[in-house]
Amino acid sequence: MVDIFDEVDEDLRAERAANLLKRYAWLIIALVLAVIGAAVGWQFWIRWQNAQDLAAAQRYVTAQTAADAATEQPGASTSPARTAALAALDQQAASAPEGYRTLGRLRAAGLKADTRDLPGAIALWDQVAGDSAADPLLRDLASLMAVQHQLDHGDPTQLEARLKPLTAPGNPWSALAREQLALLDLRQGKLSEAKTALRALSVDVIAPNGVRQRAGALLTGLGEAPGE
């Protein structure tokens, strides 16, 4: 009797399953097709994104090469080569993905600074420094470059406010920012503060060699031996 009841129960379950399958077959098929479509779409998107990144990289290399060639050419700052290089970098900054857009702005700023278009260069550095989507390392570099090119004429309070966050331990630009702060102190006649900062830099084994050497040379010029 138990076996008979089990067989009947299995038949009923099989019948219910068959009815459910008939009733919802269209939904199951739709779900399967949706999953397949999403997977195919994702693969197409990945390939498209890779193609876009490759094209952006090629455009950046072309613009960078043109900028390097223009920098090496003697002559007026408004030469056709420089103008073309800036146009290529501006286009790169306007249309490229975020990483290459930031690099394009930084290189264009450097080229503008080389051609003595300091306001244009500072405007681009400030754009990068204020771009929350840009890499923090490049944002800090842009801020440092903007300050460096205003060190002899910019507002000391504003320049100091931009430099101090860069001096935090672990920041890759810390030594350079401390050097700029020391130069800013010298500009303002704060000789004691400048010497203190320069002494620390001259013996800082973590600071780049160039920074240590410049700090030592400045101390010597101020009548003090490095490390005293």
Description:
- This protein is mainly alpha-helical and 228 residues long.
- Among the domains are: 79-138, no CATH class; 150-228.
- The chain has 9 helices and no strands.
- It has helices at residues 2-72, 80-95, 98-114, 118-129, 136-148, 156-163, 174-187, 191-202, 209-221.
- Helix 1 (2-72) runs parallel beside helix 3 (98-114), helix 2 runs antiparallel to helix 3 and helix 6 (156-163) packs antiparallel against helix 7.
- The N and C termini lie far apart (104 Å).
What are its keywords?
elongated, mainly alpha, 228 residues, 77% helix, disordered N terminus
Give me a quick take on this structure.
By secondary structure, the protein is mainly α. The protein is built from nine helices and no strands.
Give the SSE map.
Blueprint: H1 2-72, H2 80-95, H3 98-114, H4 118-129, H5 136-148, H6 156-163, H7 174-187, H8 191-202, H9 209-221
Helix pairs in contact: 1-2, 1-3, 2-3, 3-4, 4-5, 6-7, 7-8, 8-9
